[in-house]
Amino acid sequence: MKKTLIKNIGKIIGIVPEGKLRKEGAEMEEVETLEDAWLLIEGEKIHSFGSGEPPAGLSSGEHTVRTIDAGGGYVMPAFCDSHTHIVYAGSRYGEFRDKINGLSYEQIAERGGGILNSADLLRETPEEELFRQSLERAVEVMHKGTGALEIKSGYGLDTENELKMLRVIRRLKAALPVEIRATFLGAHAVGRAYTGRQGEYVDMVCHEMLPAVAAEGLADFVDVFCDRGFFTPEETLQILDAAQMYGLRGKIHANELAVSGGVQAGVSRNALSVDHLEQTAQAEIDALKGTETMPTMLPGASFFSRLPYGQAKNFIRSGLAVALASDYNPGSSPSGDMRFVMALGCIQMRLTPEEAFNACTLNSAYAMGISRTVGSVTAGKLANLIVTVPLPDLAFIPYSHHTPFISRVILKGDIQS
Ligand SMILES: [Zn+2]
């Protein structure tokens, strides 16, 4: 089996014991480190690591060991991004000018912006072209250090085009060493053909789209945009219950625009995550306590749309876990840079660098159901790692958030850049 030794590591950060799947409350402040270290990769996985000189005799026998000199830099887990919409056609930069000029959401939609216009463009775009555009974005975030990625459908809004999006996600899974999970988001908005008939659209999502998605095994999770002006908690429960019959757990868009009841709906069906949460009250925090649901916040969307930021600090003080993700999408967060997300977590949400680090690695992996295999430096996990240039402190990563800090990205044991 192929072996790679990383030597001359200034510090390994983000060591987590096997079986620890998320960090909650005060634990989020803990980042375990090891100085003057080496790390051995065997095949796709982290084999072992330690401090001091690497063990002798690794190169003996028939196996040669490739050596990477970290030059005193850090080794950390690759970022995990548990909420994106990177499969889309074209972009919405025109809408950017309209937003700056103060146009309303309705005016922007009339001029060709918003989810429904992304859906129109996606329908006209052949699968091959959609794959090409999406691959470009996925490769971009991979080089920025993302080693695990959740991608949603939701710009198809009819069965044929939702399937097209999910097939593109399946092709991305096969094409890249990034660990990818697919989420079916048929209930992102009501498709144009169903304007004024939201109830019928939800029935169609449950009885036509979901069986078709499940028949091809295209989704790992199901999502609903449960918010003011989109889908109600009752409709959300209807879709979650239908999805449960196909073994699909929920990851819900909730409380972005209003206190929507989406958190409670998600928790009542043991959703894996509830995401956005810009608008929450104590009732949402109470609803999440003692559950397996990961509260996930998307500061890049708050930044781009000038919305309030989620109250991550309150969640953590209440003993809850928090994950951060990019929400990479053409309308409200056209960036998948997880280092910037980490910086926004610190600057705008007042998370410590350690809390933001755990939110962007282990906890975000949990929110994709893959924290057994990625999200930390743990023997036996996938070797999805960032080797950094020499850094004075973990805080430098979010602090100097545009100074290049990556020397190498290693995914499944192979150097990507
Ligand atoms: Zn989203």
Brief sketch in words of this structure:
The protein is an alpha/beta fold and 417 residues long.
Summarize the helices and strands and which ones pair or pack.
Blueprint: E1 3-15, E2 32-42, E3 45-51, E4 65-69, E5 74-77, E6 79-81, H1 93-100, H2 105-110, H3 114-124, H4 127-143, E7 146-152, H5 159-175, E8 179-187, H6 198-215, E9 221-226, H7 233-244, E10 249-254, H8 262-268, E11 273-276, H9 282-288, E12 294-297, H10 299-305, H11 312-317, E13 323-324, H12 338-347, H13 353-360, H14 362-366, E14 385-388, H15 396-399, E15 406-411, E16 414-415
Parallel strand pairs: 1-4, 1-5, 6-7, 7-8, 8-9, 9-10, 10-11, 11-12, 12-13
Antiparallel strand pairs: 1-2, 2-3, 5-14, 14-15, 15-16
Helix pairs in contact: 4-5, 5-6, 6-7, 7-8, 12-13
Bound molecules: zinc ion.
Structural overview:
By secondary structure, the protein is of the alpha/beta class. The chain has 15 helices and 16 strands. The protein has helices at 93-100, 105-110, 114-124, 127-143, 159-175, 198-215, 233-244, 262-268, 282-288, 299-305, 312-317, 338-347, 353-360, 362-366, 396-399, and strands at residues 3-15, 32-42, 45-51, 65-69, 74-77, 79-81, 146-152, 179-187, 221-226, 249-254, 273-276, 294-297, 323-324, 385-388, 406-411, 414-415. Strands 1, 2, 3, 4, 5, 14, 15 and 16 form an 8-stranded mixed β-sheet that branches. Helix 6 links the parallel strand 8 (179-187) and strand 9 (221-226). The radius of gyration is 21 Å and the shape is globular. The chain binds zinc ion (ZN). Zinc ion binds next to loops.
